């Protein structure tokens, strides 16, 4: 009687099935991670910003809630550094705005030297209340900077980004509380 399937063909089919199976598992896990980011971001005040910034980090695909919180705080940090650099540029180009710009420089130094390190260290140690306080303070500092220009702010966009990313980070930390 003829063998219905030669051993080589059998192992080929076997290998193919294994590949299909592992691809399936891979897709299923990517699917569930996308769902975690979307689930988390729906609990924040700015879903679009939350999802689009987190997706720029490849590590977000495998991160847990705490990991996503750390990433969001890092995003606040990056945006705050950009804003402080912009403030330094404006101090040279717009001396008439020196006073409100100095005020903002103080606020952004507080974000970068106190609020962000506090938020990250507290996340690391599991002191989520302190971490939330850090992100809330960062949102407040950005708002204070903006308000102090009394309507003629050259930093409106950057202040909103820092405020909104901080508020999103705060909401993610809130989930851990
Ligand atoms: C989300 O954040 C972006 C960037 O700061 C802002 O332009 C947009 O208006 C925000 N959306 C909401 C619903 O707050």
Automatic annotation (TrEMBL):
<dbReference type="InterPro" id="IPR052421">
    <property type="entry name" value="PCW_Enzyme_Inhibitor"/>
</dbReference>
<keyword id="KW-1015">Disulfide bond</keyword>
<dbReference type="InterPro" id="IPR034087">
    <property type="entry name" value="C/VIF1"/>
</dbReference>
<feature type="signal peptide">
    <location>
        <begin position="1"/>
        <end position="32"/>
    </location>
</feature>
<dbReference type="Pfam" id="PF04043">
    <property type="entry name" value="PMEI"/>
</dbReference>
<keyword id="KW-0732">Signal</keyword>
<dbReference type="InterPro" id="IPR035513">
    <property type="entry name" value="Invertase/methylesterase_inhib"/>
</dbReference>
<dbReference type="InterPro" id="IPR006501">
    <property type="entry name" value="Pectinesterase_inhib_dom"/>
</dbReference>
<comment type="similarity">
    <text>Belongs to the PMEI family.</text>
</comment>
<protein>
    <recommendedName>
        <fullName>Pectinesterase inhibitor domain-containing protein</fullName>
    </recommendedName>
</protein>
<feature type="domain" description="Pectinesterase inhibitor">
    <location>
        <begin position="32"/>
        <end position="172"/>
    </location>
</feature>
